[in-house]
Amino acid sequence: MAATKSNQPRRVMAFVFTTIVVGLAVYVYYTFFRLQMGGGAYAPFVKIPYVVLWSLLAYLAVRLVNAAIFDFAFRLRRGYEAPTLVRNIFSLIAFTILFVIIFKVEYADVNLGALFTTSAIFGVIIGLALQDTLGNFFAGISLHADRPFQVGDVIVVGDHVGVVESITWRAIKLRTFQNHIVLVSNSNAAREAIEVSPRNNLNARLVFFGTLYSDSPAKTIHVVREAVRDADNVSDKITPIVRVRNFGDSAVEWEIKYWLDDYAKYNDTDALVRQRIWYALRRNGLSFAFPTRTVQLERKAPILPIRPEDQIADRLSAVDIFAPLSTDELRQLAKATAVHVFAPGETLIRAGDEGSSMFVVHNGRVAVQVSERGASRTVAHLTDGNFFGEMALFTGEPRTANVVAVQETEVFEIGHPAMKHLFETNPDLAESISWTITERQADLAKGPEASPPSIAETAGVLSSIKRFFGLR
Ligand code: CMP
To answer: How far apart are CA 282 and CA 285, in angstroms?
Structure first.
């Protein structure tokens, strides 16, 4: 593995220091021992330290060239780290060549080739002792030649799944999703089928769920696809596919196929997708299927938890614009109110869409965001008792901003007909709402430093509300 950036200077220093020391040792040995003994007349064993010192120098030179080629040139040109196995093979061959040269210069009369080829004992030792090692080594070479995967890819080999950290002459090193290290020997890997999910590839996942037979398939497809497509790490290059897998005993069985930007995070993304499905089904009156007995119970109970009207009316009475309403009016409004729950990160309102309802935050927190020059700016955070979505509802204009849930958020949705009825019985309501709308319009246009809206601006908004709702 390559040196980390922080200890690189220390390693360079150690390298330079060792090179100087070994170089000096070669020089000292040469001047004081060999020259004084007179060229060639000394005993062969005197040459041994000399050969060892030169071999050390050769080893340091090989490391230097290895670093220059693989740490510098290779990474610069290819953009990723060179495989450890290739580096090791390079070092081994380069060092062997240098060692043979050094050996030949010092012991010209010894025939190295004959020594290796004729030694039956040597062959037997290599054959037996290094059987597994050589098997791994050659399997590693064939893995590199095929290039079926690279560092950073997710692979499944045998029972193991993980991200490839390195491929050495002995084994493939995997980091599992429990952050453990698994070493799969090259020869085992060569025998197994390996499933590769390359890093630079759009890899897909399947997530399964089941719904009631009474739920509309078309609606389920639409709702689930929209809920999943803007989840983090779900690629926006391919739209997720939602399809029926099977008609099961007590459920319509579905699968959703989606593609990931970063496949190594598929556990988290699967979980997020399931969470999004849960919220989307619940919000849209669709239900997960359970064994038949549970289905019967579910039919009796409404799918959305219907809150007691009084509880909703209670919350609405705390919203400043609804303060003038009587208890009866509040209860009527509560009856016409739908309850929705959104997951953190889900978009409740999209800028530019048409809007025919407004929302009151019952509990949770949302962010109002506008996009400016490609970046998103948060204009406001709204929490319990705040309302939003009134601008499009009351003016008939498209939605002015995105509203995104910051945490799990429960909202009450009030539609156009309910508001029209209120305006007719409560003309003052339109006026107080027009103040809020004018203030928010100024915020959007000029930011928080905007000066308070003028009476003329408010009057303009009020008359457009009246026109839109056909009020006098
Ligand atoms: P609407 O335009 O229907 O949809 C986006 C909503 O964001 C908008 O209505 C307002 O309710 C809300 N909004 C816009 N600007 C602000 C702001 N400055 N402060 C609070 N809420 C805002």
So the answer is: 5
